[in-house]
Amino acid sequence: xxxxxxxxxxxxxxxxxxxxxxxxxxxxxxxxxxxxxxxxxxxxxxxxxxxxxxxxxxxxxxxxxxxxxxxxxxxxxxxxxxxxxxxxxxxxxxxxxxxxxxxxxxxxxxxxxxxxxxxxxxxxxxxxxxxxxxxxxxxxxxxxxxxxxxxxxxxxxxxxxxxxxxxxxxxxxxxxxxxxxxxxxxxxxxxxxxxxxxx
Length: 199
Fold this sequence. Notes:
mainly alpha; disordered N terminus
């Protein structure tokens, strides 16, 4: 594994990224596109810059998740069935990425580019050099999925559009599912208390 040289200033926590984006509200057109209901509401393009900005923040999060699962798979540390679970969860994040990218394009914006593999390898947040076992890889994924769950749940109350809140809740549900499955795979105890997520 490549050693980590320095922190990547562009990679922050999911909570920080979504926290900053929560001040923006998506238009009805963006919500319709993200929710898969087509181009309803796009007759007048208007200013979609705020929509594009928040969607690009979410897209950056999906890129990071995809990269983390890829690096974990390429490490050679994951064996079946854990490898199969990682590939499945990565496919969910790829579906999120594709939906976000398509919506940004339909709004007339430009989707941000993914970072290079080298950028992710150097990220202190991912700490690829510290991955020495399958459990290390799974714990990294577990930590990222919990952060994503809390970030998406944290942004819901600030969203003015109920449909966007529903989309954010669905994303949070995917992340919570991933976190729970990883927790069980690791043999960790499930949280004892209620209202565990979003705190």
